Amino acid sequence: MRSAFAHTAELDLAPGSDETAPGAAIDLEVRPVAVLHTEAGRCGDRMRLRVLFACDVDLEDEVRRRIDLALASRWSVRDALPGAVRECERAEAERLLNA
């Protein structure tokens, strides 16, 4: 059975760095096992990421591990935590489930 999940992370991102690189790294690492949507916002030298993903419930922990691995491979991760899909994200979560 597939379900939708959320994961959040905050990392250090040097000035002038490619702001799309963390999302791309997550995409490369996660695509084999899940579909996803990533939102990112920068505040100074920090990047906050929110990843929605859909996968088989048995793969949830594996996907979260892959997200953390993708980020830790190139950036200093300040925080990475499971999150709940918010009400305002339900439509995107449904889209991912149907992808």
UniProtKB/TrEMBL annotation:
Region (Disordered) residue spans: 1-20
Protein name from the UniProt record: Uncharacterized protein
Taxonomy of the source species: Bacteria, Bacillati, Actinomycetota, Actinomycetes, Pseudonocardiales
